[in-house]
Each structure stands twice: as C-alpha cells, then as structure tokens.
Amino acid sequence: MDIVRLDMTPLLQTATPGGAAGGLVQFLPMVFIFVIFYFLLIAPMRKKQKKAQEMLSRLKKGDEVITNGGIFGRITALDEERGFVILQVSDSAKIKVLRSAIAGLAGEPETAAAAPTAGT
Q1: Strand extents, DSSP E, 48-119
Q2: Which H or E run includes 37?
Q3: Domains plus CATH for the chain?
C-alpha cells in the first residue's frame, strides 16, 4: 500500500492579491447584515421604547390605564419620587403598581389590541 503525500507549503506561502482590500471585502457581508438588523429590529424597538417612556411621563391623576398584567384602573395618586402609582380598580379596591408596569392608556387602540382577551 503506497501512501500519497501532498506538500501544501507552496499553497500556504502564496500571498493573496489585494492585501488590505481583500480583508475589507470579507467583512462587507457582516456589515450588511448588521445594517439590516439595525433597520428591521433595533431602530423600531428604540422608537417604541421612546414612545412608551413619553407616555409614562405624561400620566396624570384620573387617567384610565391598563397594566402589563391586564388590570384596568384609574390613577388616583402618583408618587414621582418612588416611581409608583395608585390605581383604583373598583369602588373599594386600590392597588399600588410601579409606573413602569403600566402598558398604556385604556382608551388607546394599540393597547387594546395588545391586551390579552378572555377565552384565548
């Protein structure tokens, strides 16, 4: 049985034509993918986050809101210092929730579409 031996050193010693330009071309697909991810995922997420932060900063007493847990209530008090609000959920029941736990105003169509529905 004869063993065939290949000498790869001449192939490894040859320089790639273009040098630095060839290295830059190799990274173009990764840069292109990052640009696509930015415009499809990162930018819309930042826009939505900014809109939610703006909504939370405009909350005032008397607003009807829905929490991330799906609880509807009316704001009866705001504590700016500690970052929570008191929601009146019925005539005799009030709960304290974090301001960041408020998903949106109860009358907005976007909040109503995102809220879970009974029976699903």
Answers
A1: 64-67, 72-79, 84-88, 94-98, 102-105
A2: helix 20-37
A3: 16-55 (no CATH), 59-114 (2.30.30.140)
Tokens describing residue 17: 């034509």
Query: How far apart, in Å, are the Cα atoms of 39 and each of 2, 18, 43, 83?
Result: 59, 32, 5, 32
pLDDT tens figures, 37-96: 999 999 999 999 999 999 999 999 999 999 999 999 999 999 988 989 999 999 999 999
* Contact call for residues 44 and 85 (beta carbons, < 8 A): no
Predicted TM-score (pTM) of this structure: 0.58
Residue type, position 113, single letter: A
Please provide residue 36's backbone torsions phi and psi, each rounded to the nearest 5 degrees.
-65, -45
What was the pLDDT predicted at 23?
77
- Rg, the chain, Cα only: 29
DSSP string, 3-28: PP----HHHHHSPPTTTHHHHHHHHH
Residues 6+ apart with CB under 8 A from 27: none
